[in-house]
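Quick one, tokens below. Sequence please?
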């Protein structure tokens, strides 16, 4: 089977601390240079690349002269703050050498769980991609605590894949991929080339914890693949030092373990909209907007909205109804119900003067809208 990465247009690549810092020896210029060269080449092919990089705490420990990972949270956070500087500096330098712009994005769990912040993070990342800038993402370790942290960057990579609607997630690690058992202990252990993401048998196979440097083990990677599959992204787990690993995966070569998403991307997103969120309100639209949204696949603009029902906030899922009252679509509102009432029937160019600010020109962007 060809790698699922070959068909992917938007790809999230996650690299772990031990690769990034060469087992804790310090930010590995050569490794980051190598990935940057590949990211640039794939971006030049028209693919949209997002990097999720660990290594802040490991690099911070090195810079502070600490030989073992501190137990105290505030010390880990201090190390992350110190190390993140070195980390992004290296990505910035190496990507710039390839003629590609980069941006630092630090996220917390709260940014992804709260729907308004989720939409903001999503808009920003999609804007960066449209500007052909490669976002380099890490958890905002300095401000999180145990209750609110994502905790490991495998999970963060999957959440980012969900956030940007990625087609594929590539998790680069210090192992070749997933085995049916621990190959160091079990001579019968067999390499898994391909499986279905979310298959419970994989969780039993992955077992155990990760390296002493990073947070995640194979289990967090298998669970991340399941999460990424929730929005239709397939995952590949591969060895980060494999030469040209990203280019070869994109060319279709099977490297590492491919965990294939069972549901196609659109269906997964639609399912999520239809099943998982309660609707807080609705808008009725005119016949022109029905044609645009239903037949032409366009976004819903405020000008087509004739009535706003209910009480919803930015980021809530709302229904879109035809003039006859039939539900034709659902989507994430870019404006609250109060704001929507003020801008309905008005051209988007007036949003700023009506509200004093403008988030987006659409009430519901096409990417956040599904026909029902
Ligand atoms: N965010 C942490 C760091 O950059 C890494 C978490 C992980 O190892 O998964 O140091």
């Amino acid at each position: 089977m060809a790698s699922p990465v070959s068909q992917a247009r938007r790809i999230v690549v996650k690299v772990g601390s031990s690769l990034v810092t060469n087992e804790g020896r310090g930010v590995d210029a050569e490794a980051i240079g190598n990935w940057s060269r590949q990211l640039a080449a794939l971006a030049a092919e028209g693919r949209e690349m997002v990097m999720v990089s660990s290594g802040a705490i490991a690099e911070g420990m090195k810079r502070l002269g600490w030989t073992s990972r501190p137990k105290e949270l505030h010390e880990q956070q201090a190390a992350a703050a110190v190390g993140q500087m070195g980390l992004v500096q290296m990505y910035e330098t190496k990507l710039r050498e390839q003629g590609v712009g980069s941006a630092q994005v630090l996220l917390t769990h709260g940014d992804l769980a709260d729907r308004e912040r989720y939409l903001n993070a999503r808009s920003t990342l999609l804007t960066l991609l449209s500007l052909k800038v490669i976002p380099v993402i890490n958890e905002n370790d300095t401000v999180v605590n145990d209750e609110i942290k994502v905790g490991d960057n495998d999970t963060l990579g999957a959440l980012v894949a969900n956030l940007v609607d990625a087609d594929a997630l590539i998790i680069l690690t210090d192992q070749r991929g997933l085995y049916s058992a621990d190959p160091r202990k079990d001579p019968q252990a067999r390499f898994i080339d391909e499986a279905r993401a979310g298959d419970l048998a994989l969780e039993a196979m992955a077992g155990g914890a990760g390296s002493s440097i990073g947070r995640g083990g194979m289990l967090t990677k298998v669970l991340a693949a399941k999460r990424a599959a929730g929005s239709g992204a397939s995952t590949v787990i591969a060895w980060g030092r494999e030469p040209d690993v990203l280019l070869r995966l994109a060319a279709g070569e099977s490297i590492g373990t491919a965990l294939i998403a069972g549901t196609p991307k659109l269906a997964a997103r639609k399912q999520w909209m239809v099943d998982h969120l309660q609707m807080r309100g609705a808008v009725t639209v005119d016949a022109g907007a029905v044609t645009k949204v239903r037949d032409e696949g366009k976004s819903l603009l405020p000008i087509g909205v004739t009535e706003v029902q209910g009480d919803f906030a930015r980021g809530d899922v709302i229904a879109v109804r035809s003039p006859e009252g039939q539900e034709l679509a659902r989507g994430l509102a870019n404006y609250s119900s109060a704001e929507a009432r003020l801008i309905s029937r008005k051209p988007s160019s007036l949003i700023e003067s009506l509200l004093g600010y403008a988030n987006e020109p659409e009430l519901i962007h096409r990417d956040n809208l599904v026909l029902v």
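The first strand starts at residue 10 and ends at 15. The two ends are 34 Å apart (CA to CA).
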